[in-house]
Amino acid sequence: MVQSALEIKEVYKGFGPDWAREEIISDFSLNVKAGGLTVLVGPSGCGKSTLVNLIAGFDSPDRGEISMDGDRITQPSHDRMVVFQETALIPWQTTIQNV
Asked: What is the pLDDT of residues 38-90, one digit of tens each?
């Protein structure tokens, strides 16, 4: 069996207070093999950016697990990178680190 580079298991993510919570991602699983190309396509608001933020470690799933090469993703790390559509700076990094 080939090990996945990225493994997403039964991930849930929602926003808002319990009484008005909106589930954005519900019971989502995906395995991405090393060296492959995977594309997520969907309409605006379907959870693509939320999933990218979870994989990058900028946010955490409500339930489920995301791991890279067998290591659970719990925070941002140098082994993952996000290229934003719009110009963006990461506020907790210095100017040089943002470059």
From this structure: 888 999 889 999 999 999 999 999 999 999 988 999 999 887 888 777 777 77
Q: What's the rounded mean pLDDT across residues 12-31?
A: 93
The H or E element spanning position 8 is strand 4-15
27, 15, 11: which is closest to 65 by C-alpha?
A: 11
Q: Does 98 have pLDDT greater than 80? A: no
d(CA 42, CA 49): 11
Q: CA of 32: how far to CAs of 3, 35, 54, 62, in Å?
A: 9, 9, 15, 21
Instruction: Return the bridge partners of 28, or none.
Output: 11
Name 67's bridge partners.
7, 72
Helix or strand or coil: residue 17?
coil
